[in-house]
From TrEMBL, chain A:
Belongs to the TRAPP small subunits family. TRAPPC4 subfamily. It is found in: Endoplasmic reticulum; Golgi apparatus, cis-Golgi network; Golgi apparatus. Transmembrane segments: none annotated. Pfam families: Sybindin. Part of the multisubunit transport protein particle (TRAPP) complex. This is Trafficking protein particle complex subunit. Residues 113-135 have a biased composition (Basic and acidic residues).
Automatic annotation (TrEMBL), chain B:
PANTHER family: TRAFFICKING PROTEIN PARTICLE COMPLEX SUBUNIT (PTHR23249), TRAFFICKING PROTEIN PARTICLE COMPLEX SUBUNIT 1 (PTHR23249:SF16). GO terms for cellular component: endoplasmic reticulum; Golgi apparatus; TRAPP complex. GO terms for biological process: endoplasmic reticulum to Golgi vesicle-mediated transport. This is Trafficking protein particle complex subunit. It comes from Apatococcus lobatus.
Length: 211, 156
């Protein structure tokens, strides 16, 4: 009986940056894992907000009938999720020490790593200039490659995905294009304080400017 | 070993009962108003149920993300723990959801929640002839029996 089912690593804006399943789970495709990661990011923040006691930092452990989900949040906002068999011992320890150490050693200390790409931009806040003035630019690390969120209402492909000639950003068809659903989740996640503070609190979105 | 607060919701999302024993962080700092707090709580566990059903590692007949969930059919979560509170959840076959927030060191309360549903909620509320199902209720006997039951359990 396997004890570990899957590992997810989520960056501080809610986007999935790494996913590994140790046991094949046939009905979860990549789009679903991306959505699940964003959903978890939002639920983690909402649970902290709804806490009846002060100083809550979010969900650490989710217990269900068929699996346990352990979450470790680093001081920088990166979350490590481990889906395990129920009642597996010492998982929090494993996350905090082994997995986090391997991540820092092999990923963060790698000079070619792009998961924390816009470091300087994050400190200054996203700047909108020229034709993009008035639009909120989302850091590239929050979106899947090839996608750019130009404003709250539409998403624009910067590179067309191969093999899908019918795919347009505004299509609501079923699995041809997952862009509107992903953008909706991302917008929902952006409303939370954790993400809003990260983006640059002084930068109004186009919805607020028009009001 | 502390109980913070307690919610009962029905299938439509109406909060039928809310009771708090202690709440160090007030509602204003959290959701803003009590009704926002209740709506947010409903949304939270509704999404957690969907999330748990989609993450389920069993592969037969899994509910698709975004699809409707049958009560009792899909895998559902029964509690989650944070660094300073633990939330316990029970959904009855009729869609009545019971939520209890306690301090984090408390163990598995699934049996206790079943007893709360079966011996306290059903007895004091559902069997009350003037109770309109689906409407929020306030019942002193129910809160009293619930508090007494939790106090008896905390000693064990």
């Amino acid at each position: 009986m396997p004890a570990l089912y899957a590992l997810y690593v989520i960056n501080k804006s809610g986007g999935l940056i790494y996913y590994k399943e140790f046991v094949p789970i046939a009905s979860l495709n990549l789009n679903d894992t991306l959505r699940l990661a964003s959903i978890w990011h939002s639920l983690h923040a909402i649970a902290a907000q709804l806490s009846p006691a002060q100083g809550c930092t979010g969900i650490d452990l989710l217990l269900t009938e068929t699996f346990d989900l352990h979450c470790f949040q680093t001081l920088t906002g990166t979350k490590f999720l481990l889906v395990v068999e129920p009642r597996t011992p010492d998982v929090a320890e494993l996350l905090r020490t082994t997995i986090y150490e391997l991540y820092t050693d092999y990923v963060l200390k790698n000079p070619h790593d792009e998961s924390q790409h816009h470091g300087l931009r994050e400190e200054q806040g996203p700047r909108a200039e020229g034709k993009d003035k008035g639009k909120t630019i989302v850091p590239r690390s929050a979106l899947p490659p090839g996608l750019q969120l130009t404003n709250y209402l539409s998403v624009q492909w910067t590179q067309k995905p191969r093999g899908r000639s019918n795919c347009s950003p505004t299509s609501t068809g079923n699995d041809g294009c997952d862009v509107p659903k992903y953008a909706t989740l991302l917008m929902a996640a952006q409303q939370h304080d954790t993400v809003r503070n990260f983006k640059g609190a002084n930068d109004p979105g186009p919805a607020e400017k028009s009001m | 070993m502390v109980c913070y607060n307690f919610y009962i919701f029905n299938r439509q999302g109406t909060c039928l009962c809310y009771h708090e024993w202690q709440r160090p962080k007030s509602v204003k700092q959290g959701a803003g108003t009590p009704s926002d707090d209740q709506k947010m709580m409903f949304g939270l566990f509704f999404s957690l149920k969907t999330f748990a059903a989609a993450m389920d590692p069993r592969t037969e007949n899994k509910a698709q993300l975004g699809g409707p969930l049958r009560i009792g059919g899909a895998c559902t979560f029964h509690s989650y723990a944070t660094n300073n509170y633990k939330l316990h959840f029970l959904e009855s076959p009729s869609g009545i959801k019971i939520i209890l927030n306690t301090s984090p060191e408390i163990g598995d309360l699934r049996d206790h929640l079943s007893t709360i549903y079966g011996s306290i909620y059903v007895e004091y509320v559902l069997k009350n002839p003037v109770y309109m199902p689906g409407k929020p209720f306030r019942c002193q006997y129910f809160i009293g029996a619930l508090t007494k039951y939790l106090q008896d359990c905390r000693l064990t």
